[in-house]
Amino acid sequence: MRTPSDFIRTRRTFVEEAALGVAGFGLLPATAWACAEAPDAGELESASSDAASTPATGTGLVWDDRYLDHVLIRPDGGRPPEIPDRLVRMREELVARGLDEATVPLAPAAEAMPHIEALHTPEHVASIRELEVSGPVAELAVSGALTAIDAVVAGQVRNAFCAIRPPGHHANNTGAEEGFCYYSNAAVAAKYAQGVHGFERVLVIDWDYHHGNATQNAFYDDPSVLFFSAHDWAAYPRTGDPALTGEGEGSGLNINVHLDCGATDADMLGRWDDTLSPAVAAFDPDFVILSAGFDSRVDDLLGCFALTDDAFRRMTRTAMDYADTCCEGRVVSLLEGGYNLDGTALATAAHIETLLEG
Ligand SMILES: [Zn+2]
After folding, report:
1. Among residues 53, 69, 89, which one ends one of the domains?
2. 3-class secondary-structure state, position 209
3. What 3-state DSSP class applies to 218?
4. Over the Cα atoms of the chain, what is R_g?
5. DSSP alpha helices (H): ranges in the chain?
6. Do 154 and 173 belong to one domain?
7. Higher pLDDT pick, 42 / 210
8. Are residue 137 and residue 30 in the same domain, yes or no?
9. For residue 166, is the peptide bond before it cis, meaning its omega torsion is within 30 degrees of 0?
10. Are 296 and 314 within 8 A, CB to CB?
11. How far is CA 288 from CA 107, 133, 150, 171, 242, in A?
């Protein structure tokens, strides 16, 4: 592992090389990064050539009309803003920008239930399966995530975005919906990448306004998953204490970052630069999963951050830079929150446009 001073020197080198176009990161060098085994400049050029010759190109888009069938109505009749129109409006924006045709369509096909059962308790799964419409759709959301991982591993695409609902990062084992979530999509996907495809170390980055408590819980003592969540600790579910850093062999691999209401692009990206990037460099992942929640965008109905679409472009690019350096570009992104219909559509489009840069 490099010392902090080595890392700073490496990072500066990357910024300089990015400015020269050497590393191919020229557009967004603000959070430029190098992994633990960073090659020198000469090797970077050859790595770049190698990347150009790899078959994995393009961005997959997981979509299924059945994701629109799930309508969340609480027992008291309440209707939270996690509604089908989130995807309808998103789809309109993707079509308007030609992103539906620029991406590779991926229909959820992977068998999800064995992998859901490997993470969740039998009681929880039985309870969710009893839900006539929402149960199957929640299972289909996991299937979409696993299908995206299969496509990336097979080299069908370089990366993928999953326009899935319901979201997953609050789903523990309560036998009911929690925070609009039923199954822990990102956690199941991470374990699937490991158990089915043999990847050893998975990085999960959660930029949703809310803490990814279920993902944290799934890997809290697990040294094979680095989990980073930047969120408003004062908001639901109030579990994202930055003092919670993992335990046992997973100590130091659970990173909770609190951001105040009004947090800006610089606030978020600064924490990526000073906290996430060094952790990723030390961890050296071989697969990257994003819990892409867009309720951290300005003007969300539930969130109070002020992130612009540029922040989502930069976070996406930086996650891709991590993956390009350590994981042959393997990034699978899962939709979590985002409740301002226009805002979520615009931020998602920016996210996908960046993924398409390869
Ligand atoms: Zn959220």
Report:
1. 53
2. coil
3. helix
4. 19
5. 4-20, 41-53, 85-96, 99-102, 113-119, 122-129, 134-153, 185-195, 213-219, 265-271, 277-283, 309-326, 341-355
6. yes
7. 210
8. no
9. yes
10. no
11. 21, 31, 13, 20, 22
Q: Is the pLDDT of residue 39 over 60?
A: no
DSSP conformational letter for 249: G
Q: Which of 211, 161, 198 is nearest to 345 (CA)?
A: 161
Other beta carbons less than 10 A from residue 5's beta carbon:
8
What is the reported pLDDT for 34? Answer: 56
Cα(39) to centroid(ligand 1), Å: 37
Q: pLDDT at residue 73 above 60?
A: yes
Left, alpha or beta for 131 (phi > 0: left; psi -120 to 50: alpha)?
A: beta
Dist. CA 14 → ligand 1 center (Å): 33
Ligand 1 centroid, distance to 315 Cα (angstroms): 17
Closest CA to 178 of 258, 131, 254, 237: 237
- 138/140 Cα distance (integer angstroms): 5
**Identity (one letter) of the amino acid at 52?**
A
Q: How many helices (H) and strands (E) does the chain have?
A: 13, 8
pTM above 0.85, yes or no: yes
Instruction: Check whether residue 299 and residue 333 sit in a common domain.
Output: yes
Same domain, 7 and 84: no
Helix (H, G, I), strand (E, B) or coil at 254: strand
Residues of the chain with pLDDT > 90, as a percent, come to 83
User: What pLDDT, on a 0 to 100 scale, did the predictor assign at position 108?
Assistant: 98
Average pLDDT over residues 128-141: 98
Type of residue found at 107? A
Is there a single domain that holds both residue 149 and residue 196?
yes
Please list all protein residues whose beta carbon sits less than 5 angstroms from ligand 1, which is an ion.
208-210, 293, 295, 337
Q: How far is the CA of 95 from the centre of ligand 1 (A)?
A: 25
Q: Can you tell me the distance from the alpha carbon of 112 to that of 256, in angstroms, rounded to the nearest whole number?
A: 28
What are the tokens at 9? 């020197």
Residue 284 Cα to ligand 1 midpoint, Å, equals: 27
Indicate which residues carry an active-site annotation. Answer: 170
Tokens of residue 181, six digits: 């979530």
| pLDDT score at 35 | 52
Look up the domain containing 198 and give its range.
59-355
